[in-house]
Amino acid sequence: MMKTLKLPSLRPAWLAGGAATLGAVAVLAWAFMPRPVEVEVAAAVTGRFEATVEEDAKTRLRDRYVVSAPLAGQLARIGLREGDTVAAGAVVALLTPVLSPMLDERTRREQQARLEVTEAQLQRAGARREGARVALLQARNDAQRSEQLAKQGFVSATRLESDRLAALAAQKELDAASSDRSAAGHEVEQARAALGAVRNAPAGAPRAFAVRSPVSARVLRVVQASEATVALGAPLVELGDVAGLEVVAELLTTDALQVRTGAPVAIEHWGGETALRGRVRLVEPGAFTKVSALGVEEQRVRVLVDLASPPAEWSALGDGYRVTVRILTMAKDGVTKVPVSAVFPLPSSPGSDGSRMGVFIVEGSRARLVPVALGARNAAEAWVREGLPAGARVIVYPPPAVADGVRVKVRVV
């Protein structure tokens, strides 16, 4: 009998080869398939949006007085030192005539001219005080009128607050004008006394002339401490009231246009633990040219800020200290906000002004481009006026690989 040989079946080998091929294809497809882009997200929230202008500033005394020599003579050594307190009318220096020419006709005429100049300054200070009094009366009338209209619903609360702050600013201006009027009156008295000393000088030993302080203040600087012969008008002592500090910020003209009188100010980086409060008193009407550190000419405007915090909180501050101010220029409640890093400009289209903005939001596992309209933005947040609902998840710092429809993966921080 003949035996029949059975050949092995090729079907299992074919199936195994096909499965291996399919597995290799699947691995290659998975390897070359685009991976989701890792992104960071933040939620669009509803809240208060504030726009501010931030700038370096410095403190300065609102009023400072330089006591000068009312006549030429020998100055005795001044015993005052920086930081000492002097009362109004206190003697700060003594002058003694040393030469007979102090008594000649030329000296008399010089003293007479000085008296006339100080009298003119007194009249100018009086006119300023009267003008400040009229401005205060006008500001108070405007504030009362706004209060009556606000009760009837014809005036907004913002306008009422501005009128009240204007009345407070007018009161401070009147106080400053009154102080200047008093100081000018003292200068007249001193010039008159100097003229009398020259006219009525005795023929024998010269008589010392006392130079007095025009106001109650502290000594900022002793210009001439040692005994010396000084000329007419030479500065002797610089006085000022450190309780009358103000903050001066030099803003770019484009930023100064956004600042309004009475705007709240946060004063930071002054050395204390918390920020101080302030109010804008005045935006000066005249600009000046300033060269920046890079050599660029800039047009800037001085903005004067009054300290609103209690004096006990900033008693360590002095004249010429460096600070940083953040001036509030706009505030809106109940608006939609997103991080400013989530907003970017969209390519301009024909007929557009090139100011279109957009954000990427995460829907499911994909990014979607959403055009938005911005109301304003600051260093940290952007106010979305329309185009984005509150609660949407936006991509912050979108990577270059993110585009409309791209698969994304939220990075867990």
Characterization of this structure:
With 413 residues, the protein is of the alpha+beta class. 28% of the residues lie in helices and 36% in strands. It has 4 helices and 22 strands. The strands form 4 sheets. It has a 6-stranded antiparallel beta barrel. α2 packs antiparallel against α3. The protein is elongated and about 135 Å long. The model has no long low-confidence stretch (mean pLDDT 83).
Q: What's the SSE blueprint?
A:
Layout lengths: L10 H22 L4 E7 L1 E17 L2 E5 L4 E3 L9 E2 L4 E6 L8 H47 L5 H43 L9 E4 L4 E6 L5 E3 L4 E6 L4 E8 H4 L7 E5 L7 E8 L4 E4 L5 E11 L14 E18 L4 E2 L11 E7 L2 E12 L3 E6 L6 E4 L11 E3 L3
Parallel strand pairs: 1-22
Antiparallel strand pairs: 1-21, 2-11, 2-16, 3-10, 4-6, 4-9, 5-8, 6-7, 8-10, 11-15, 12-13, 12-16, 13-15, 14-15, 16-20, 17-18, 18-19, 19-20
Helix pairs in contact: 2-3
Computed Rg? 38 Å
Total domain units: 3
Uncertain spans: none
Regarding quaternary structure, what we see is single chain
Kindly estimate the percentage of residues that lie in beta strands according to DSSP. Answer: 35-45%
User: CA-to-CA gap between the ends?
Assistant: 81 Å
Q: Helix- and strand-based class?
A: alpha+beta
Instruction: Report on the biggest sheet.
Output: 6 strands, antiparallel, barrel
What sequence of helices (H) and strands (E) makes up the elements?
A: HEEEEEEHHEEEEEHEEEEEEEEEEE
